[in-house]
Amino acid sequence: MPSSPPILLQNTMGHALQEFTSITPGVALVYTCGPTVYNYQHIGNFRAFIFADTLRRVLEYNGYRVRHVRNITDVGHLTEDTLGTGVDKMEAAARRENMTPEDIARHFTEIFHEDARLLNLLTPEVEPRATQFIPEMVSLVERLIDTGHAYIGANGDVYFEVATFPPYGALSNNSIEDLIAGARVEEYSSDKRSPADFAIWKSAAADKLMRYESPWGEGVPGWHLECSAMAMDILAETIDIHTGGEDHVFPHHEDEIAQSEGASGKTFANYWLHNAFLQGAGGVKMSKSLGNIFTLADLAERGIHPLTFRYFTYQAHYRTPQWFSWEALEAAQTGLYRLWEAAADLLQTSQPAVTIGDEAEEWRDSFQQTVNRDLDMPGAVAAIHTMLSSKLAADQKLALLADADRVLALDILVAAARLLDLRDGEQSLLDQRAAARAAKDWSRSDELRASLAAGGLDVKDTPTGQHWVRNDVLPSSRGEDAQDS
What we know:
Layout: E1 8-11, E2 16-19, E3 27-32, H1 43-61, E4 65-70, H2 89-97, H3 101-118, H4 134-146, E5 150-152, E6 158-160, H5 176-182, E7 198-203, E8 219-221, H6 223-234, E9 239-245, H7 249-264, E10 269-275, E11 278-279, H8 296-301, H9 306-313, E12 322-323, H10 326-347, H11 358-372, H12 377-388, H13 394-408, H14 412-419, H15 426-438, H16 442-454, E13 457-462, E14 465-470
Parallel strand pairs: 3-4, 3-9, 9-10, 11-12
Antiparallel strand pairs: 1-2, 5-6, 6-7, 7-8, 13-14
């Protein structure tokens, strides 16, 4: 792999900016905590998925082959992320909709996939469903019991004994005592040796819809156990990067580390990356429980293109909380449309150069250095706008836009081409206007410009002739191309 420019990532483990070095040269093993499919994914969820997708794109931009796994949690997990009490969200949705948990999972997985396509999220190499990996989860529990990290309670529940894993708390940078005091942990049970111990297998109550066979009786895996089993089985016992939202740091990822490393004796992930929340009105986290969430469908009802939301997330660094408002989203839509318009204007005089010249290469190097510094997408977008205002040749600007869009995934040239589409009769009106201007018939020229504008086509005069752009529609997102990796 080229050594320059380096990829620098803020590792939650150690809380420092570190140069990325993969276990296998040229290959990056990346695991992303995926959706729990009992409901629609809201735009706060999608900020995390866009961040993970951007990470993958930056790695691929630097020449890595990325083996990306993003799971589907279709077993469900309990409210407050506990396993001892509460209502299983998957089963609650099934009962509410008079459907089976499997049908609920299938339905919301399909909707998630469509939303992911609209946002140009690349398809992971593997997208495992938790229900497909129950035997691997049972095997992992057995390994933890055999290594002395887990014990069986009186009712068939199996717990991880935190005291047997001294590094516990390193990811969240806290002591076990502080974590017990400040985090959401299960109610203390006489079954547990310590309040800090957490369930990795829970026996199924009589009314439990989802239940699986195990040596300890019918039950369900712990939510944290699912990701450990899938990541280790599909990728490796040590992976390069694990991503998730900042709410995953504790307990989810802390518990993943304890389980995985307790079973294997190896480092589970070399880099841990976490995105900050998308905040709702008043700086309150977006969540289903608070009822302040919006889906991509809600955005569409307000005339917001799905890629506008992707562009919107680039206006704040992934580790910085971002505040949502309709005004901010509409401003982002204006910014994205202007980017598409600028590309459309260039396409009317040129096509992208086949090769990037020396001067343009300096711009490309600057862009790469920006995205390589912990995915600085605000800086990357600013660099693109600065490049567009430079004196570079049109074909070089277009080549740079195409190159940068490998990371940005904003369909810049595809959308720009659609902004140039002409409808029936419009080419004739443009020809008539060109003839009127040649004859210096300014009145007729203005009349034809107004007629074209009424039909949704803005026309301007440039030294190279008439340029136009549609103003009446937003280009639709691309189709199956969004899934190409």
